[in-house]
Write a structure and sequence with these properties.
The chain is an alpha/beta fold and 179 residues long. It has two domains: 110 residues, Rossmann fold (3-Layer(aba) Sandwich); 69 residues, no CATH class. The chain has a four-stranded parallel sheet, sandwiched between helices. Strands 5-6-7-8 form a four-stranded antiparallel sheet, with no helix packed on it. Helix 3 runs parallel beside helix 4. The longest helix has 14 residues. It is globular and about 50 Å long. The C terminus is likely disordered.
Length: 179
């Protein structure tokens, strides 16, 4: 979630939707631990309600972004539903991320499809035995107009940067990575 939260704007509220199974399997979000205090959290009964809430959210210009968590491969999460969500997000220009927990990579209308996993944290400058900044393994495995790729990404105060193999220096200094 840190990967997504780092990309969401802080000037407007963030809508976070979780279906019941996502909450049971991975837990509720803890708002005091988030970098934004402008949070609207919705606990949806099922994937169908979560998708409806997300679609209504992206149509609202008062939101900075919409994040939705859905567990598994529910029937409601088909190509039509993901396509409707992608089109609504494009029309309103509200960023929208659908996080699929425990699901299989099947047909989707999403414009970009990422596989994200945690990576070892970066070295701490003050104490080599302490963890440093968070890092993620990011794989873009399907996107329109973009070649697939695999990166290790870390987040500083205001930007993402690519991370080299351990013992190497950071790659792409001064460059931004957009998802």
């Amino acid at each position: 979630m840190g990967f997504l939260l780092a990309q969401a704007g802080a000037e407007k509220p963030l809508l976070w939707v979780q279906d019941r199974m996502a909450i049971l399997e991975s837990g509720r979000i803890h708002p005091p631990g988030l970098p934004t205090q402008n949070l609207i959290h919705v606990e949806a009964r099922d994937a169908k309600d979560a998708l409806w809430t997300m679609e209504e959210g992206v149509r609202c210009s008062c939101l900075s972004a919409v994040i939705g968590e859905i567990w598994g491969d529910p029937r409601a999460l088909d190509f039509t539903a993901t396509r409707r969500l992608a089109v609504a997000a494009e029309r309103s220009e509200t960023p929208c991320w659908l996080v699929r927990l425990g699901g299989t990579p099947n047909l989707s209308g999403a414009r970009m499809r990422w596989r994200l996993a945690s990576a070892p944290s970066l070295a701490n400058d003050l104490d080599p035995r302490a963890p440093g900044a968070a890092a993620w393994d990011a794989e873009l495995f399907r996107a329109r107009g973009h070649p697939p790729g695999h990166w290790t990404v870390a987040h500083d105060a205001d930007r993402f940067h690519l991370v080299a193999a351990p013992g190497d220096r950071a790659l792409g200094e001064g460059q931004r990575l957009r998802a």
